[in-house]
């Protein structure tokens, strides 16, 4: 089979095309950034001879998907004889609420049900749905699957996801902790078990997805039992531009002092806070580490606040799993910053975590950076959400071919 994985973000579209025979191999990948804005950039790669970068106005996500798919079948970039060679499409869907607890095949009914969650993910949900709709038009009759970022966290118990506000808010509006990055957490947890040659269900693990957005997941018995993000991705850890957890009364206080609406304050907490807000310099942690090494005090402070936030968050996950035997770092910062990993670990010595500095600095790709004798294994595992989506999509199509029917 050939499985197309599509990830439509708020202003971008990314895709990978996988061939599943003999293991999952990437045939092509591409992305369009700054959709609907000046300077839209398209990148496409199907091998060194078909590696392109160009700028082309793309007014919306449908136009972006249409153009990216055209690269697969037209001109010198083509690697397919036609789009009908694609066996299925897997869509990353940010929010499935409580209704969708697992990945699903899409039909008219399930596509309509997805409309329910627009209020829960207003930035990401419209482009997610646009990706489904344009694929329905361009790839008629080809099965499509929805793989939810929230689904892995649906095993979190009620005492961990219920907020201490009047219970009718949950009953009427489904206000609760949902969690995000579930596809990534599920992938690295499963991969950690393979690396350690352990049954996933036997591990007491915290996975740390640390990128522009950051979240933690407590994995016990092979399931998500708690996570740091909440009703929205703003909650939890200090991030690149997001504040993470703060005193909620600050929203009203800042709104009053600055003569702003609550929505405007929330926008600041999402886009102008976190490491950017503290440092006043950059949201890119590479810039902050360079500036800190040159004596920039607020960059240094931002990095320490971030590391302490992660370590405190890891500590808060431990009660959910009754201990800790595995810690996993993933995503941009988690995979690529030995300094951040070392700083976070320094706050967690009490757990038994001990990392080998040489392994930490030299470790690339998948690696175990634990010191010899450390009772907690510390792993660096590059996340691969697209592979997880491709695998889930293939599984659903195989089940469909085994007797279930896909409805247009």
Explain the overall architecture.
The protein has 408 residues and is α/β, with parallel strands linked by helices. The protein folds into 2 domains: 2-148, ATPase, nucleotide binding domain (Nucleotidyltransferase, domain 5, 2-Layer Sandwich), CATH 3.30.420; 197-385, ATPase, nucleotide binding domain (Nucleotidyltransferase, domain 5, 2-Layer Sandwich). Helices cover 38% and strands 19% of the residues. The chain has 15 helices and 14 strands. The chain has helices spanning 61-73, 108-113, 125-138, 158-161, 167-173, 182-196, 249-258, 262-271, 274-279, 285-293, 297-321, 331-336, 338-346, 357-362, 385-401, and strands spanning 2-8, 12-19, 25-33, 41-45, 51-55, 88-93, 104-105, 144-148, 204-210, 214-220, 223-227, 326-330, 367-368, 377-380. The strands form 2 sheets. An 8-stranded mixed β-sheet has the order 5-4-3-2-1-6-8-7, with helices on both faces. Strand 1 and strand 2 form a beta hairpin. Helix 1 (61-73) crosses helix 3. The longest helix has 25 residues, at 297-321. It is globular. The two termini are 20 Å apart.
Structure described in brief:
The protein has 408 residues and is of the alpha/beta class. Helices cover 38% and strands 19% of the residues. The longest helix is centred in the C-terminal third of the chain and has 25 residues, at 297-321.
């Amino acid at each position: 089979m050939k499985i197309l994985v599509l990830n439509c973000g708020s202003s971008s579209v990314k895709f990978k095309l996988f061939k599943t025979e003999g293991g999952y191999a990437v045939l092509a990948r591409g992305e369009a950034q700054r959709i609907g804005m000046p300077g839209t950039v398209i990148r496409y790669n199907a091998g060194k001879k078909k590696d392109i970068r160009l700028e082309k106005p793309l007014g919306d996500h449908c136009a972006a998907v249409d153009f990216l798919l055209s690269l697969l079948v037209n001109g010198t970039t083509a690697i397919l004889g036609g789009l009908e060679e694609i066996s299925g499409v897997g869509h990353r869907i940010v929010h499935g609420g409580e209704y969708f607890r697992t990945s699903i095949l899409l039909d008219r009914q399930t596509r309509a049900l997805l409309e329910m969650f627009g209020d829960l993910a207003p930035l990401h949900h419209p482009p997610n749905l646009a990706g489904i709709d344009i694929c329905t038009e361009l790839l008629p009759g080809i099965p499509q699957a929805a793989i939810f970022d929230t689904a892995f966290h649906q095993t979190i118990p009620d005492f961990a996801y219920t907020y201490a506000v009047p219970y009718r808010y949950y009953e009427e509006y489904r206000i609760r902790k949902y969690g995000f990055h579930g596809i990534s957490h599920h992938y690295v947890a499963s991969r950690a078990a393979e690396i350690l040659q352990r049954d996933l269900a036997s591990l007491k693990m915290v996975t740390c997805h640390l990128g522009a957005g950051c979240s933690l997941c407590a994995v016990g018995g092979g399931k998500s039992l708690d996570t740091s993000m909440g009703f929205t991705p703003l909650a939890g850890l200090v991030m690149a531009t997001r504040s993470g957890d703060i005193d909620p009364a600050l929203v009203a206080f800042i709104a009053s002092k600055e003569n702003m609406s609550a929505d405007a304050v929330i926008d600041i907490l999402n886009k102008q806070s976190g490491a950017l807000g503290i440092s006043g310099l950059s949201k890119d942690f590479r810039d902050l580490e360079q500036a800190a090494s040159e004596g920039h005090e607020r960059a240094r402070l931002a990095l320490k606040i971030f590391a302490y936030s992660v370590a405190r968050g890891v500590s808060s996950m431990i009660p959910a799993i009754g201990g800790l035997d595995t810690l996993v770092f993933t995503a941009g910062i988690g995979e690529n910053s030995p300094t951040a990993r070392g700083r976070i670990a320094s706050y967690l010595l009490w757990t038994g975590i001990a990392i080998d500095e040489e392994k930490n600095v030299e470790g690339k790709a998948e690696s175990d950076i634990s010191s010899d004798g450390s009772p907690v294994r510390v792993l660096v595992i590059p996340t691969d959400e697209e592979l997880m989506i491709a695998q889930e999509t293939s599984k659903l199509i195989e089940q469909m071919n085994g007797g279930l029917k896909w409805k247009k």
